[in-house]
Amino acid sequence: MDRLLTYLTGFDEEPGYLDVAAFGPLSAPVLAEWDAHRDLLARGRYGALGRLTENVDRMRAAAATLTGFRDDQIVFQPGAVEGLTQAVFGVTGGILVSPGEHPGLAAAAVRASEALKATAPIWLDTDHGRVTPGQIKEQLTSTTTAVAVSLVDPRTGYLADLEGIRQVIGDRLLLVDATYGLGAVDAPVAQADVLACGGHTWLRAGYGCGFLAVSDRAGAKLTPVLSGPPGFAGGETVWDQVPDPADGAAGLQLGDPDPVAAAQLAAAIEDLNRAGVPAVADRLRSVVTEVIALADEYAVPVVSPRNVTERAGIVVLDPSEDQLTALTAALFNHGVSATVQAGRVRLSASAGTTSDTLELLRASLLSFAMAARTVH
């Protein structure tokens, strides 16, 4: 418990912040890395460059501990979209993916099909955006070589059953966007063949950092189409010739990693690892339960899963069309940060969400409910 408390002291966002799915405010360890590297870069001290290059190895080691992949199966990426695009462009055959997935994932499937003709999206019909093993099993075809899914659906908060999906797809590749899950849930992410994650949400590492993990089986099947000098076999820049790409994850690199961003991501993941993913996920489940209870208390419809095994850190409210403006105004007036999209309000909490934040949410929902009664 002491480790969890130490982890929670690293949260310093303003009361009312419930928008972690859009951006997770930087943790204290990440800010410390930022300050230390700012000084290092500004002064250009002797040996600084060598120290900077060690940050990528540190990030890979931390991500390996978090995910269950080996560190040599992990490479830095600027974000999940970049990592997933690398992987999708390397697929040969059909990719079963929902058109309702995060736009970065769906766009990668379409762009790869348009550019290479070696792959094509097979659009998955879902149950209101929820991707389940049963739906996938029913829609697999003889041309399906890969299945792509978000660990947590950013529009509903639904947590995918990776073990169930793994069982029904057999030896097909499983590509997973973990951006809205890692740091929020305790999930068997090692079931994925390709795992991409951005650091700007529940990892709280900021923009411009992420990683891509690739299993040995995926590494043998993927073609490293978008592979630049960091992806050369041997791991060194070569002049006057273009070597073959490295095997596996190492070959799926286009540009040099940002060593400062890698340090921030490493610090964030190390902080999470010390606290323990199960403890952090359990704490967040309790917070989400309180958020849902508040919505129920003031009769605001919730479309996110209520089953604790199917939900993460996102609670989506679905007011009637004529009440959306009033709900949005109530949240704004009480200083509650949230995302409004497609006629719904997305609240996204963290393990560090405080009672002060929940009280502000309560006040905003009370204000909304009173206004609704006045109108009617």
Keywords:
376 residues, 7-stranded mixed sheet, 3-stranded antiparallel sheet, 12 helices, 10 strands, globular
Describe the secondary-structure layout:
Elements: H1 2-8, H2 28-43, H3 48-67, E1 74-77, H4 80-89, E2 93-97, H5 103-116, E3 119-123, H6 133-139, E4 144-150, H7 162-169, E5 173-177, E6 194-198, E7 210-214, H8 216-221, H9 259-275, H10 277-297, E8 314-317, H11 324-333, E9 339-341, E10 344-348, H12 355-375
Helix pairs in contact: 1-9, 2-9, 3-9, 4-5, 6-7, 10-12, 11-12
Helix proportion of residues, in percent?
Answer: 40-55%
Strand content: 5-15%
Major pleated sheet:
7 strands, mixed
What spatial order of strands do you see in the largest sheet?
Answer: 1-7-6-5-4-2-3
Head-to-tail CA distance between termini: 48 Å
List the quaternary state of the chains.
single chain
Averaged pLDDT: 94
Molecular shape: globular
Computed Rg:
21 Å
Query: Which stretches are low in confidence, meaning pLDDT under 50 for 5 or more residues running?
Result: none
Number of helices: 12
Could you state the order of secondary-structure elements as H and E?
Answer: HHHEHEHEHEHEEEHHHEHEEH
Query: How many beta-strand elements?
Result: 10
Structural class: alpha/beta
